């Protein structure tokens, strides 16, 4: 089974004044921390950016085996980035990830990839019903068709991952209570949106690295 990872790195953070994927955590860009975790468990790496300037910036430090693709749609949001990634992915199944989750769990990724065989998607879900569509695995062909269908809607509220998922038939939701058995603190879902998040991540990094060693 061929697998791909699609990392969404097209967002520009106003809070940080730069592309979020290039933001450094303890001296290493966030996107590299993500790739370091998942590259050993997938066959192909794709990084989706939104412009030529982002592509040029990423090429300076991304590993040679990472393929950088640029959104071909003017609208920029996770759904468009996902569609661009699925269009360029060779893997039968694609792991979709944001570039700002430095503690993503390779063990959870492996579990989601295994569970997705024969399904359209495997998506983590919290007890309150909230889902994690940007840390999920999709059947590439099915997700591509569903994303195209969702983008046909002109209303802005339709341009989201939920509208894509609504078109998928075989979706498996995995409770975060189950995932806690692998990642007790669910650090895999910790993402960096604010300077405070970055400070928290820097504080947690040594302890987290020690715990996973």
Task: Give the helices and strands, then pairings.
Blueprint: E1 3-8, E2 12-13, E3 18-19, E4 24-25, E5 28-29, H1 30-38, E6 44-49, H2 52-59, E7 66-70, H3 78-88, E8 93-98, H4 106-115, E9 121-125, E10 136-139, H5 140-151, H6 161-165, E11 171-175, H7 176-179, H8 195-212
Parallel strand pairs: 1-6, 1-8, 6-7, 9-11
Antiparallel strand pairs: 2-3, 4-5, 8-10, 9-10
Helix pairs in contact: 3-5
Briefly summarize what is shown.
With 213 residues, the protein is of the alpha/beta class.
Using brief descriptors, characterize the structure shown:
disordered C terminus; Spore Coat Polysaccharide Biosynthesis Protein SpsA, Chain A; 213 residues; 11 strands; two-stranded antiparallel sheet; seven-stranded mixed beta sheet; single chain; alpha/beta
Structure description:
The protein has 213 residues and is α/β, with parallel strands linked by helices. It has a single domain, classed as Spore Coat Polysaccharide Biosynthesis Protein SpsA, Chain A. It contains eight helices and eleven strands. It has helices at residues 30-38, 52-59, 78-88, 106-115, 140-151, 161-165, 176-179, 195-212; strands spanning 3-8, 12-13, 18-19, 24-25, 28-29, 44-49, 66-70, 93-98, 121-125, 136-139, 171-175. The strands form three sheets. A seven-stranded mixed β-sheet has the order 7-6-1-8-10-9-11, with helices on both faces. Helix 3 packs across helix 5 (140-151).
């Amino acid at each position: 089974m061929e697998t791909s990872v699609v990392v969404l790195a097209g967002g520009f953070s106003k809070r940080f004044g730069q592309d979020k994927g290039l933001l450094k955590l303890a001296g290493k860009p966030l996107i590299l921390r993500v790739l370091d975790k998942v590259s050993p468990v997938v066959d192909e790496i794709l990084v989706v950016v939104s412009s030529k300037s982002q592509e040029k910036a990423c090429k300076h430090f991304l590993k040679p085996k990472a393929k950088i693709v640029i959104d071909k749609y003017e609208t920029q949001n996770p759904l468009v980035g996902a569609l661009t990634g699925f269009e360029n992915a060779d893997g039968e199944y694609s792991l979709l990830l944001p570039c700002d989750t430095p503690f993503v769990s390779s063990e959870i990724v492996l579990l989601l990839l295994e569970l997705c065989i024969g399904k359209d998607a495997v998506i983590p879900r919290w007890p309150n019903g909230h889902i994690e569509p940007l840390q999920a695995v999709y059947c590439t062909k099915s997700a591509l068709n569903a994303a195209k269908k969702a983008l046909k809607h002109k209303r802005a509220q339709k341009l989201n991952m939920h509208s894509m998922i609504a078109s998928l038939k075989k979706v498996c939701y995995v409770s975060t209570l189950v995932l806690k058995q692998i990642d007790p603190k669910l650090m895999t879902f910790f993402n960096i949106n604010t300077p405070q998040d970055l400070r928290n991540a820097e504080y947690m990094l040594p302890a987290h690295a020690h715990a996973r060693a």
